[in-house]
Amino acid sequence: MNASRAEHEAARERVGRMEAMRTAQQRVDVRGTVAFVLLAYVPAWLLTLPLWLSGRGLSWAGAVVLLPLMMFTPAAAALVVSKWISPGEEPLLRRTGITSSGGIRKWWRYALLAWLAPPVVVLLALVLGWALGVYQADWFGLSGLAQQQQAVVLGEGTPDAAPKTLALVQLAQIVLVGWLNVVPALGEELGWRGYLLPELLPLGQPGAFLVSGVLWGLWHTPVLLLGYNYPTVPSVAAIIMMMCFCVLVGTLLGWLRLASGSVWPPAIGHGFVNAAAGMGVLFSAAGHPVNNATTGLLGWTGWLVLSALIGLLVLRGLLPVHTPLKQQGISRGIRRTRTRTRKRR
User: Which of 12, 97, 136, 276 has its CA 20 to 30 A from that of 88?
Assistant: First the structure.
């Protein structure tokens, strides 16, 4: 009887703690969220000013330095907000997902998926684009890669390499050297998925994915206007397309964040999505430049693949992720309430 009563009291106390945390987290932290958006946007946009003032845009030599620096502004914004503007009850590293309960033993499987899945997903998008006639591929001849390599050889006077050998080298680089992309990707993920996504969960997971994805896409506006990612489409269309891409990819990265409890799997996934972005060139046919608006994950055929993956997660019951300590609701104020529970004797 005493053991049963003790278990009952322990269960009641756990429920009380959960309810207290729900009360504390039932609203979006408006001050922290707005401050994060401003601190993520303003420095990033200021960093693009030299690209505009140079008159050369993305072709300016300094772009290779400024664009990676831009990727670290969301991380800086998340750390400033979490430390000084709107500190939460959780430690800073735990709040942003740098550390998590269970550690790497909990999230290593998600990290493995985030590492190996992006090249496969990009390849599926290319196959779909080829099947629908918007991507002209030369899967085995690799004539597009050979044409590109020939132009480089003629320009530099270096020995030519067999296209298949070059393709194998580049695929190996995606899987292995792609880890270097995880470093700047972590700069973005600490902000968008590490801090912002959990803060928006009171809107419900679909709302959180949508809002964080749109904000992530709009954050790219200054470089999109310079022709980044979508150089062949009008500027407004490029911004809209980037938002669509970011909402879809952001949903999958967000699933990794919520399911693993860590920011590392989405950072790895983001890094390898970037690493695999050039796969369209590897398999293209000569004389047919790759159009990002239609091909790969950036294009509408890639969106179909991403949407299918999201649908698969939903059908398998993996999305939305079970997060019992977050309530749904529209934001109405700053999250500041704290509730204490008394232990009943």
Answer: 12
Write the CB contacts of 288 (distance below 8 Å, at least 6 apart in sequence). Answer: 136, 144
DSSP three-state, residue 284: strand
DSSP string, 168-199: HHHHHHHHTGGGGGHHHHHHHHIIIIIIIHHH
CA distance 218 to 192: 12
For 221, phi and psi rounded to 5 degrees? -50, -50
Q: Give yes or no for a contact between 111 and 268, defined as CB atoms under 8 angstroms apart.
A: yes
User: What value does the CA radius of gyration of the chain take, rounded to a whole number of Å?
Assistant: 23
Give the Cα separation of 246 and 120 in Å (integer).
Answer: 19
Q: 284 phi and psi, to 5 degrees?
A: -75, 155
The 10 Å Cβ neighbour count of residue 84 is 9
Q: Per-residue DSSP letters for 108-136?
A: HHHHHHHHHHHHHHHHHHHHHHHHTTSS-
* Calpha distance 15→10 (Å, rounded): 9
What are the C-alpha distances in Å from 149 to residues 35, 59, 72? 47, 20, 33
DSSP 3-state assignment of 303?
Answer: helix
Amino acid at site 151: A
Find out whether 72 and 187 touch, Cβ atoms under 8 Å: yes
**pLDDT per position as a tens digit, 135-182:** 999 999 999 998 888 876 545 544 567 888 999 999 999 999 999 999
Say what the pTM is: 0.87
Phi, psi of 137 (to 5 degrees): -110, 150
The string of pLDDT tens digits covering residues 151-161 is 765 455 445 67
**Per-domain residue ranges of the chain:** 28-85+92-315
Q: Say if residues 268 and 178 touch (Cβ distance below 8 Å).
A: no
Taking CA atoms, 206 is separated from 64, 82, 191, 290, in Å, by: 35, 24, 18, 32
